[in-house]
Amino acid sequence: MPRFRSIQVSALNITTHPHSPEKYIQLFQDVFEAARPARFRSNHYGMIGSLHFLDENNPLEGIHGEIYKFLDFNADEPWLNLAEHKKADEHDLRQVNIPDHLKPDFASARYIFLPRSHKLFFESKTADSKSFGPTTMQKIFTGIFSLKSIRELYGEVDVTIEPSREGLKNIFSIHTLKRLQIVLQRPNPDDLEETEKEVLERLNQQNAKKMESLLIADSGQSLAPDKGTQTLAKIAASNGHVSGEGKDEEGMRIEESTADHPWHHVIKFNPKTQGAREAFLGQVADMSQKLRRRFRG
After folding, report:
1. Residue partners of 52: CB distance under 8 A and separation at least 6
2. What are phi and psi of 93, to 5 degrees?
3. Is the whole model's pTM more than 0.85, yes or no?
4. How many distinct structural domains can be found in the chain?
5. 166 phi, psi to nearest 5 deg
6. Residue 116, CA distances (Å) to 24, 162, 179 in order
């Protein structure tokens, strides 16, 4: 019986305005060539470590590569001598010789970016159990897209964690829904069904890049979101966020948010017949289809 290994995949929605598949390809190439890491937590940094085309003859099929994360620190800050339980002195520090180009606590995860749908799939847990959580990845990409040289060329690039179907389902299932907040960053038109494009048209007509909607229930009542509000929430789930507050059947306070329920996809493979890279790249079509269909029906 073969012993299978697994990879957990999550996803980000990356949007620019105006946009085109070619522009997204150029965005990633410019960020990669800039080779500038972004801080995502304390002294931890991340960057695009490698970039390749899924099909060298057709770049629009997508990009793949690795994301790197590592620890960086200021070597001029005080050091501790654990052997003597005191601050390290000049004699101690003469033994420290770490070149600036070497960084500790390195880890990498694979990614695939599809420029037509502007979705980025990444290993949120690698086959060797390295963790790249969705929030970490969101911070890394928000950081590298915020470089001055990138912003001057592309403006603001929005990065949203793709939520699972359960995120919205849990919100609309709150027994007594007292408060519903929808924050919508202007989506790209090719992502939307016909009924959803009306929302985008409303934003465009008002020269708006962002919409915030807050519904608060009457005293003693529960919100009853109509079809329009539910459509708005579905779009915002991948282009912003949605949150709800209320009470459960026992009267206990409850909060739900799409941000708390990231989309996951698990890939299992037999390491004797397939590598982790091949397993990841081999499921790009399946992952894309499952993500696209998660709110359907």
Report:
1. 63, 64, 65
2. -70, -20
3. yes
4. 2
5. -65, -30
6. 8, 16, 35
CA 62/CA 58 separation, integer angstroms: 8
Neighbouring CB atoms inside 10 A of 16's CB total 18
Buried b (16+ CB within 10 A) or exposed e, 92-104: eeeeeeeeeeebe
Q: Are residues 39 and 112 in the same domain?
A: yes
Do 142 and 175 fall within a single domain?
A: no
Contact status, residue 279 vs residue 295, Cβ threshold 8 Å: no
pLDDT the model gives residue 34: 93
| 179 and 119 assigned to the same domain | no
Domain check: are 34 and 20 in the same one? Answer: yes
Considering the domain architecture, whether residues 45 and 139 belong to the same structural domain is answered as yes
At residue 191, the pLDDT reads 65
Cis peptide before 99 (omega within 30 of 0): no
Which residue did the predictor score with more confidence, 282 or 89? 282
Residues 126 and 32 placed together within one structural domain of the fold: yes
Whether residue 142 sits in one domain with residue 274 = yes
* 173-220 pLDDT per residue, tens: 999 999 999 998 887 766 667 667 777 788 878 887 888 999 999 998
Which residue range is the domain that position 103 belongs to? 5-161+265-293
Q: In what order do the strands lie in the sheet with 176-185?
A: 210-216, 176-185, 240-247, 253-257
Q: From CA 15, how far away is CA 236, in angstroms rounded?
A: 13
At 42-92, the pLDDT tens digits run 899 999 999 999 999 999 999 999 999 999 988 778 888 888 888 988 888
Q: Do residues 85 and 197 both lie within one domain?
A: no
For the record, the structure tokens of 232 come out as: 């708005």
Question: Residues near 30 by Cβ (< 8 Å), separated by ≥ 6?
Answer: 149, 150, 153
Burial (0-12, 13-18, 19+ Cβ within 10 Å), 183:
middle
Q: At what angle do helices 165-172 and 227-238 cross, to 10 degrees?
A: 140
